[in-house]
Amino acid sequence: MTVLAALVASGCEDEVTGIDDPLAEGEISFDASDPADFTYLTFAEGGSVVSVSDPQTSMEWDIAFRRFSVKLNGGVAGPGSVAGYNLENHAGADSADVVDFTSADADAAWEAVTGDDIAGATFIEDGLVEDDSGPWFRFDPIGNTLVANSGAAWKMREADGGFALFRVSAMNLVGDLLGDITLEYRRQDAGGSLGALSSLTIAFPPGPPSPAFIDLESASLVTPMGGCEWDLSVAPFYTIDFNTDCDAGTFPLDAAEDFAGMTQADDAPAYGGFLSVISGAIPSTVDDASAVFWYNIEGNNFLWPTYNVFLVRVGSDVYKVQVTDYYDAMQQSGFPTLRFKRLQ
User: Fold this and answer.
1) Are 49 and 30 in contact (CB under 8 A)?
2) Cα separation values, 139 from 124, 145, 171, 249, 338, Å
3) Is the pTM of this model over 0.85?
4) Percent of residues in the chain assigned helix, strand, coil, to nearest 5
């Protein structure tokens, strides 16, 4: 990724420690427009974009952005212990308020946060939450219908102790409901490695909609008997559930990971009992004022920054962080401007 704006470092005296450290704060604009790859940043030495080959093992990054998603190097997102806290300065704002926000509102929220706010902060690392956005399907404007989103995939722990990669590769509608759905998956026995690509198509019969229960090992539909004979279920009203009584669950694949080339599915840091997404103190949602942006308020696909300030703890250092823009000079989206200042 190319840094689009020079780092701006101030020589102001730190408001808590009294240290005159020009590298303790900065502002950086960067390209996070790629829909697959994250852009990784460090706060060290005044802040910069860093190249990361494996975010699950690298300690070189602190925070990362990809389009609307933000993650910190801690918990299930990375090997560090970076944690955050959402001060939710503007969480009570409605959409009209957000549209009317100005740079003065951003500065007021920024200046109001000091080292005194650290004592009341509950820092959390990134974890797994349920992705209720229907990530496995998307709207196709050409066909004016919903289609499968094969770019979304998960590592999965099966109910019987095995593992798998899976995704939805195809779907067809009958009216407003699913008529059929095709799963693609690669299974891995406990202690083994991922096998070849397999697929299973589930056709829903006419009549009252009811879920189909699937055992991936036998590639078959089964009747649940209250045990671990099924791994996941799919219903025609667009729901996918997992046999949580037998610890079945998922961990999201990064969009940059190669579904066909991966060798393991048993190495996820955690498996959530739902279609999971990584989330933490900095929400990746774009439709409320507690997150970083609010999207499409006026129906014009524009993003308005909410100017919330977040605390991010990196080791013993604590920074305040605020996203002030999402567009470059040519008004292309996916180019955030981030400012930060060390408070402790």
Assistant:
1) yes
2) 34, 6, 12, 26, 31
3) no
4) 5, 40, 55
